[in-house]
Structures are given as C-alpha cells and as structure tokens.
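Our consortium's second objective concerns turning raw sequence data into structural hypotheses that experimental partners can test. To show how far this objective has progressed, the report includes one record in full. It was chosen at random from the queue rather than selected for favorable results. The single chain below, 799 residues long, was entered without modification.
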Amino acid sequence: MKVSLNWLKTYIDLNGVSVEEIEEKLTTSGLEVEEIIDEAGKFDKFVVGYVKEKGKHPNADKLALCVVSDGEIDHKVVCGAPNVDAGQKIVFAKVGAIVPNGEFQIKKAKIRGEESFGMICSEQELELSDNHDGIMVLDENLKEGTPIADVFGKNDVIFDIAITPNRTDALSHIGVARDLAALFDKELVVPEIKLEEISEKSSDLASVELKNPELCPRYIGKVVKNITIKESPEWLKQRLQAIDLRPINNVVDITNYVMHETGQPLHAFDLDKLAGQKIVVKTAADGEKFTTLDSKERELKTTDLMICDGEKSVAVAGVMGGENSEVSDETTNILIESAYFNPSTVRKTSKKMALQTDASYRFERGCDVEMTLYAAKRCAMLIAELAGGEVAQGEIDEYPEKIEHKKVKLRFSRVKKVLGYEIANSEMKKILLKLGFEILEETEETILVDVPAIRHDVEREIDVIEEIARIYGFDNIPAVSRVNTTLDKKVDESAFVNDTREILSGLGFYEIITNSLLSEKVAQQFGNSVNVMNPQTQEMSHLRPSLLPGALFTIAKNLKVKENNLKLFEVGHTFNRINEKIDSFEDFTETENLLIVLSGKAAEKSWYAKEEKYDFYYLKGYVNEYLSKKCLDNVLTDSYNQEGDLLFDYTFTKSFKKQRVGFGGKLKKEVLKQFEITEDVFVFDFNLTLLKGIRAKAKRFDELLKYPKMLRDFGVVVDKTVKSSEIEKFIRNNSSKLLKDVKLFDIFESDNLGKDKKSLAYQLEYFDYNKTLTDEEVDKDFWNIIEKVKSKFNAELRG
C-alpha cells in the first residue's frame, strides 16, 4: 500500500523527523517499508525554461534550433516537437537529468550536426499523462528556473508499505499515522466534521432494508442533493496521483480519498437511478446476471451479497458497483453508501469473480464497523465543499445488532515475563492509549483494556503485549551483561532432523512430502483429527492426525504408474484433538513424526539372486539401523503384539522407560483396500518430538577381544502372554558379569507345545577381556540362569 508523507502530515506533526527515521520505525514495528519513492528526486534537474529563440535546423526540416533560458544561463537545444515556439514557458531537462519515462539520462549530444544541451519535455516523458503529441507548455507567469517538482506539487515522499493480513487498521493514512503517533510520541489529529445540513432528512429522501443482517451488520446511507459533477481541484488530484490512483471526477475522487484516509470503502449511487429511492441488501438469485462498472457481465450465485434498489441489483456488496447506477456528468443527487460487510462473504465473492478492488481488499480483511458513520459524514462534507452539494439532515443507519468490543485483561508482571525486560506501567498505558485502546479498569497489577473495533487481530493478553513490544521498540531492549546457561547437553532439534534425513537417504529411502490437510472421513480413521475453521474444500477440512494416510495416497499413485518397489520416509507434524471442543492450544497436541514405509520387492529376480519381497524383518532391520546411527539402539526396548489393532495385522513397539516413542508393522488389507493398494505395506511411525528428547549413549571404543567367546543356546516353552523382552531382561539382570549378550533367535508356536503355549530360543554370549574362559565357568552360570528362568516364568526347558 502506498502512503504519502505530505498526506500523513495533515494528521500528525512530523517536522524534524527524517524519512529514514520513519522508514526504520515503521519497519521495526511491523509495517515493513518495501520502497521509498522521492518525487522531488525523480524531477531533479527539471526546471521551468523559457524559449527565447526558435530557428530552423540547417540539416533537418522537422527539427528546430532553440535557445532556452533556465533563469541563469542560456542553452542551445535541438527540438523536434511541432508545437514548440519562441516565448513559451516549458519543462526543461538539464544535462544530467534522468527522464522518468524510459529512465535515460540527458547528455550533451550532437543531432544532425548541431549540438544540444538539454531537452524540452512532453507530458508523456514526465509520466504526467499519455500525451506525446508535443511539448508541455506551461503557464507564462511561472518564473524561469523554478523546480518542476514545486510547479506540479511533486515534492512528496511515498512509502510503499507491505501490510500483513492481520493489520487491517493500517490500510489507511490515519491508521499509519496512528502508529507513527505512538512511535514518536506525537498527537494524532483526525479531521473534524463540520456539516451544514438542510432541513430535508436523508431518511425522507431514501430508505434502506437489510434482508441479510448477518452478512451486512451495518449499512449507512447519507443523501447529498444538487451537486455538480466536475473535475476535482488540483490538491485532491495530486493526493490521489501520489498513491497511483487516477482522478475521475470530484464525487468519485472524494470517495476514493476518504477510503484511503480512513480505511472505510465508500460508494456513491446516483439517487435518481435507484428505483423507489430504496436500497435493499440481500443475496442474489441463483444464475442472476449483473454488469459491473468494468462493463463485464457476471453470473451470480445465492452466496453473493448484492445491493439492490426497489427493482434490480445495483452493486456487488463490498466489491464493485454496477453500470446501472453509476455517477455520471448528469448526476445531481447522490446516496453515499458506508457499510460494514461480513469479511468472509466479500472474500468468497471476490475470489469467485476473480475481481479484487481497493474496497474488497479492505472489506475481506475486516473494516472498522464504527468508522462507517465518520466516513459517511466526512465524504458528505467534502462533496458539499467541492461539488456544491446540499447535505440532507442525518443518516439512514441500519444497525440491528451492535457488535461489542473485545475486552482484554493485561497483567503487568506478564509483560516482563514474556519480553524478558521491564517497561514502566505508565509507558505501557501511554502506548495503548496512543494506539486507540481504552483503559476501563486499573489496579496496581492489571489493567482491563477495551480493544478498538478495527483491531480484529487483538484477542488475547499476548496480543496486547505484542502491541506494547513493537511500539516500545526492539532497540530499547536492555543489554544483558551475563547470561545463565546450563552445562547439560541439549539436543539440536534441527540437526537431529537433518541427520535423520541423511541417515535414511543413505539407507536408500526416498523422502516424500504430503499434504497436511485431509478430508474428515480419512482423518478420523487415523486419529482424533482437528478440523479447520474455514476449509477451502471438503477434501482439506482437517489437519492430519498421522503421516500414514498421506503415505498411502503416495503409494497408490506410484502403483498406478507401475512403480511397485518403494522405500519411502516422511518427516512432518501431526495434530490430535485432546478435548471435544477446541478453545485453546491446550485442547490438541502437535508432534513431529517420522514415518518409514516399505512396499513391494527388496530385490528383483535375476541370474544371481532370487526375488525377495519386503517383510516385517526388513522393516525391523531398517528401524534398528536408523536407531544405531543415532546411538539410540541400546536405549530403547522392544515389545510385540501379534494380534495387531484396527490398522495393523501385527505390530512392534519401541519404548523408552515405558513411554512409547514408535510403533509399526504390517498394515491390514482392509485398510490398504480403501486406498486401492494391492501390495503389502510395512510402516513404522516414530514420535520425533519424544525421540529428540532422549539422551543417546555416548559412542565409545571397545578394545578388540584377545580371548575367544563361548556361546550357549537354550529354548523354553512358556505361556503366550509372556513377553520375550521380559525374559531377556531377567537373564541380563540375574547372570554373572561373564554374560555379555542375549539374543532371541527363534519363536515357535504349535498345538504340540500345549494350549496357549509358545517356544522361545535364546543364544547367550560369554567372554572375559582378561582370560580364556573354561567350560566349567560358563556352564555353571548358564545352567544357573536356566533354573531361574524356569522358576520365574513357569517355563519348561525344551530338549
């Protein structure tokens, strides 16, 4: 959005404040200045010139030799314009000037053998209009040498500001001036309304009916009679041209001026063209046709809010007026519209029509419902002044249900805790008052503030704290001479995730990135999904509770193009609802997850190898390999569930101190069928948020063994409910120091073993770093642990 410095100065005293200071303060407070346009600099070395002489060029019939005075010296200039003549005051570009149109520099030149020291300019070359038929002839009373920037009022500085979607309050000159008043501790002066109204009332000359007040909570109409449509005065045209708006006529220019002044869009209807002098605000009929001011016929839907008269539609609410009621040169009576429209309805209509205007840009972000009245009166006042109009008494103000202000309690201690430094209570209150907040209640510890209607983005205490911080200034944050820190090793979370990506890529996996939004049907199947308030489509209505559905969609797409062998992984965030109703961030969880996916064949059939498909053990191997690279393999414990759950035929889990950090297994065919997947799919899902918080065991060097290992095997029959991990842990805890490792190498189930029984076979590894072990030493410990296992788990030793 372009903002004029000269325009800003009508609301705030900026004398003594440099352009650089304004740029820095605005940018650091959240209104980023993307570009500064110095109009005076644009017309540097352009002055009023006087053509003292004109003669023929000796070598060209269409060129003239002129002598031009710049008030100090005379310059010889070659000119090709047909209308140049002696005695004229013209725009003269000296040597060194840069012509705006084309941005080329004027240099000493030789044209057809004659020297030329400057250029006489046309309006097009100065970018004042598209006229290039001849040079621009100025008022003969202008003094030679006067800078052209002063002649045309082009002595302004324009700030091009990037306004973020939440800062609707800054979409006006008064809005930006309000921030500057707070930043520089100045007073904001809003123009006073001075109206001389006639005895006739607006409500007697026109009427307004709201049929959809939920879509248009407030509509104000104000009548101005007996106006004269004409060209706007120079000051008004200059204000609009400074921010790249094209002047049209005095009434339209005033509505644009007030919109950029206050942020409230306005529209002027020709009152005599409104059937019944009536305004009806209602939704369109399905399939209705309407021609907007850009002369395009548009098809409407029942979701489009329209401004109608007693017979027909006359404007698309909040977007654009219609040709059938526009102000023309014959217009004498007008109705000023100043309304507040529901932002979502304007946004949907604007998007559907692919039509964004200055008005819709503001309406769809949420205007100030209380500015509507001021803007209507301000517009009427200027029309009376510049169009000779007679302002009817009062306004038609349809406001069925008043929109209440938000109220927020601010704790002074909370400000210090959040920002990390102290701001005086009086300073905080002054900042809030400058920004338009009102203090309703006050104690030594807190204040209750009334939030201005335009500040839709301020809803909570933290939002108020942000307002204080951005105005107080980040450069005022005090320097800290000492910072306390802990020597405990912390995990670099970004490095952890980057390492994860590198490890899995090194293992031959391909990374995928899937949509974080799912349909309600899919999302609910994989967790307690969180719905989106304003979804673009039904297919993207819920945040993903798991990475799994995105991966399955990816597998399905690959299978359709015969990419059957897949090793994939994804790192991403998932969201799960805790409470049924979501009122705060405490009502749902957000975690970062890693999903590992296998499907298809691990090896194709060839002359040197058999075909081999991915299976559960491939998945487990890759999971363990990943963990070993992160030095977490000896920190986590395994457990297995052969019965599976709603998604898996069977699963295995990785846990840390009884807290699950990952699980996976083979997906059920019924689940895969929903995604049109015919291949087996094996997945493992890590909770990276938890995994990153686990301290890995440090890597250490183990000296190579000098003495041989001794291995012993045994198998036991136990109840199916007994976990292998429990037996393994028991063996480690109850053996001597000679036992260095325990491995489960076989699981067997059969009716021959007995009802609900299974066989588990273990290999035990013994060695000593200092000597060769004897059979007697090992056997003593080996048979001792077997007896303990039999007793503890009611186990039977297999022969």
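The partners drew two points from this record. The mean pLDDT is 91. The CA atoms of residues 71 and 144 lie 5 Å apart. Both points have been shared with the crystallography group to help prioritize constructs.
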